[in-house]
Amino acid sequence: MGLIPFDIGDSIEDVMEVVRRYWGFDGLRPLQQEAIRAGLDGRDSLVVMPTGGGKSLCYQVPPLLAGRTDIVVSPLISLMKDQVDGLRANGYPAAALHSALEPHERAEAERFIASGDCRLAFVSPERLVTSWFLETVEHLGIKTFAVDEAHCISHWGHDFRPEYRQLAILKERIPDASIHAYTATATERVREDICTQLALTDPAVLVGNFDRPNLIYRLIPRLDLRAQVREIVARHANQAVIVYCISRKDTESLAQSLRESGCSVAHYHAGLNSGLRHRTQEDFTNEHLDVIVATVAFGMGIDRSNVRCVIHAAMPKSVEHYQQETGRAGRDGLDAECVLLHSPADSLRWRTLLERSAAEGEGSNDALGASLALLDEMRRYCAPGACRHRSLTEHFGQRYEPPSDDSCGACDVCLGETEGLVEATKEAQMILSCVARVGQSYGMGHVADVLRGADTERIRNLGHETLSTYGLMSDRTQKQLMNLTFQLLDQRLLERSSGEYPVLLLNDTSMEVLRDERTVHLVPAKTRRVRTTAREAASWEGVDMELFESLRQLRTELASERGVPPYLIFSDASLRDMAHKKPTTRDEFLDVHGVGEKKLADLGEAFLACIEAGEPR
Ligand code: ADP
Ligand code: ZN
What is the CATH code for 215-395? Predict the structure, then answer.
């Protein structure tokens, strides 16, 4: 199965030779060389790279060069399956052992691993720590373990999985094993947790650059969710978009609204039956579906690299989640947009949800404290102000180096789309005095109704149309008034009682505002205009668009003929490179990004013919 002779060494030239022949890449990404070195030398390592940074290559190369079998611990079956399929398409011997295998598939995988010809064996953490598996590992003399998604071991990460904690057993059972932890979550707390829990000895800690320059970040106040999402999705017609919502109910209604506007869309959450979930994932991966509206249950293991936009319909509960979820955009390195539609109401909503699940006994008090601290960091990230690329990079403890004098050129702030804060003391005073006028006994909806001068039965019954604040802000809509009120709550200039029917209450700072002793700044509740970035335009330069579409069509045809997802054929980045270079010979074809020897042999003819003819087949 292997394409290279066994007597290959492990110098950097040897590494490059293997990377070129199997993967068709011309060079290594930052830190890949160091991470591969640690794998070859058997030195423990912790490799932190952003999503799409190229972590998998780091543990795929060493066993190939060393002619040995390594283990990869992975949290999800779909993740293992995708990787094994991708590796095999490149002629790389790999196998996965998991609970979804048929008995004969399992026997075959076990035989293959036992033969010693398998280079990478993927397993789940719970399977790895079974005594049967550990005995096999010892018997085969396997010494090198890669732990993928290693943040799952920490409750400071975004996806804590108790079964990862059992991996501590590895160093006890096999003292001379080397462990290589990989994650995209870079905070100091998570890093320390991983090193301690896995008992890493003098690890090489390799922390990559966290910035994803190809992602364009936008934070937009949420005013009319459906209209705003429709508008953003329309900017990405016929492209892959993921929309994240907090609740299952939201995914259904938002998907429905997009369907009515003519989108190819489905919703996805953990409450759907597994058959339907599986089908939806497949449809999205196979490019039969453009838009997915989902809860956070969707994403891990989705390997569609050409997601051009990730929308958050509400604020996620931590910056780690945000980074992970937006990280699913633009994995092919091409430009992609990440829009966060937020309202100050979101953090209150999360707080209630987190406290409720803690009260129901899910997780300890410590865990609740950690979740609330993470939520607070997210809330601060959403506060108006600094460059998004800078804030995110700094959140992960790194210095941000903007590509040009202090501007990232790829966020709403640097593109000059935000109006920022405006002084709004007078408006705050109107809202606060209305809270006082209604006797601090009503909720936000009613207060907003009074302020905009609504003619409702409730107002008439209560006689609130006679209040001095009635109709005081009649130039505002209900939504805008609610938004402003939420901002006051978020800045603690106003309080809200707990319980099923929370009412608005004044506090000491409200009184300071009312007495004119404190000025208030709020984000104006207006929609914004979006600009095109220079990078976005440049990334298509010299690409024959018509040819790109033909190549894409050919890819879809071949994928469905072979029953594999399109990305296993070629990535969008490869297709764009083809539509740019227009190779005519097999040698020129090898020059295309992502074309190795196996892909040349397998697909060269079909794609060269398509390039020559200018149409699929
Ligand atoms: P991660 O696991 O860090 O999220 P992946 O390992 O999935 O990232 O890699 C992301 C993408 O980058 C993949 O499409 C992969 O083929 C590509 N890639 C990785 N290393 C290189 C490289 N040295 N040159 C070009 N592309 C690469
Ligand atoms: Zn910026």
Answer: 3.40.50.300
